[in-house]
Amino acid sequence: MTGNYIISLYVFVLAGFVGYLLITRVPPLLHTPLMSATNAISGISLVGSLVAAGGKFGAVSTALGFIAVICATTNVVGGFIITDRMLGMFKRTEKPAEKPAAAPTESKHA
User: Fold this and answer.
1) Which residue of 20, 26, 42, 49 sits 20 to 30 Å from the alpha carbon of 32, by its own alpha carbon?
2) CA neighbours within 13 Å on the CB side: how many for 11?
3) 2 close to 10: Cβ distance less than 8 angstroms
């Protein structure tokens, strides 16, 4: 292994550790909005995995890129599904039309 691979592995492990710590410290109330906001980042990882899978870097890179494409696609689609469900909770439901109140009847007593 050259120094470049060791540094890349170090950055990967460090990023995984920091990401794990960050996500576990997010309160449950903010988890869904945070997840919907990170769909753009998941889209970027999808593009990167497509480059890794489609580039002619070798068989291992193509296989790992293909697995990364599947994982990133699942993450993006799942994020949008959860976002749609979350936004559905905030939609107003139509209330049934209220019946007009009956006019009060006056009773005439003789």
Assistant:
1) 49
2) 6
3) no
Distance of CA 16 to the CA centre of its chain: 18
Is the distance from CB of 61 to CB of 52 less than 8 angstroms? Answer: yes
Residue with tokens 């007009």: 100
Phi, psi of 95 (to 5 degrees): -80, 145
pLDDT digits 0-9 by tens, 25-57: 877 767 666 766 677 777 888 888 888 888 888
At 28 the three-state DSSP class reads helix
Place of tokens 């999808």: 46
In whole angstroms, what is the distance from residue 88 CA to residue 65 CA?
A: 34
9 pLDDT higher than 70 = yes
3-state secondary structure of 95: coil
| Core vs surface per residue 20-54: b (16+ CB within 10 A) or e | eeeeeeeeeeeebeebbeebeebeebbeebbebbe
